[in-house]
Design brief:
Pfam families: CinA. InterPro entries: CinA-like_C, CinA_C. It comes from Marinobacter algicola DG893. This is Competence damage-inducible protein A. This protein has one domain: Maf protein (Alpha-Beta Complex). The termini are far apart. It is of the alpha/beta class. Strand 1, helix 2 and strand 2 form a beta-alpha-beta unit. The protein is globular and about 40 Å long. It has a five-stranded mixed beta sheet, sandwiched between helices.
């Protein structure tokens, strides 16, 4: 069954409720989702109380220039990797001053995949500081839209779980 806009909106509402309850702000650093996480979080009136910024860093140049991702990480590991999403979180926190940041970088397809990073591979990170960041990789199935929808849902639920543990 396709992942609906309503399911994404519900996940966004649940994360927004946690952010508001804890009086936290969030910044997003997105690549393959193209700002979709920020869109879901800002669909609600009053979202300016918890959404500080949304950065779409699709190119490696943007990752370097806006988030401070190092050439070393990009060169050794590629944009779709744990070191890069961790640096994206650190950069989003430093750039925006948000309390929490999320980062997503993946291969949404239909092309661009490789043997070690096939289409559907998405790295996520979320954290409150460079030393309090979690990163995880997932492999999603489906076309480009389905991969991106699954990635948006995963990060909304993941950061909510991270904050609820704190």
């Amino acid at each position: 069954m396709p992942l609906t806009d309503e399911a994404l909106a519900e996940a966004g509402t649940q994360l927004a409720d946690v952010l508001k309850q804890r009086e936290l702000t969030i910044a997003t650093a997105e690549s393959c989702t193209g700002g979709w996480v920020a869109k879901v979080l800002t669909d609600r009136a009053g979202s300016s109380s918890y959404v500080l910024a949304g950065l779409v860093t699709y190119s490696n140049d943007a990752k370097r220039g806006l988030l401070g991702v190092t050439e070393l990480s990009l060169g050794e590991h590629g944009a779709v990797s744990e070191p890069v999403v961790r640096e994206m979180v650190a950069g989003a926190l430093a750039t925006t001053g948000a309390d929490v940041a999320v980062a997503i970088s993946g291969v949404a397809g239909p092309g661009g995949g490789s043997d070690d990073k096939p289409v559907g591979t998405v790295w996520f990170a979320w954290g409150r500081s460079a030393t309090d960041t979690e990163a995880v990789v997932e492999q999603f199935q489906g076309d480009r839209d389905q991969v991106r929808r699954q990635a948006v849902l995963y990060v909304l639920q993941g950061v909510r779980g991270f904050l609820e543990k704190a």
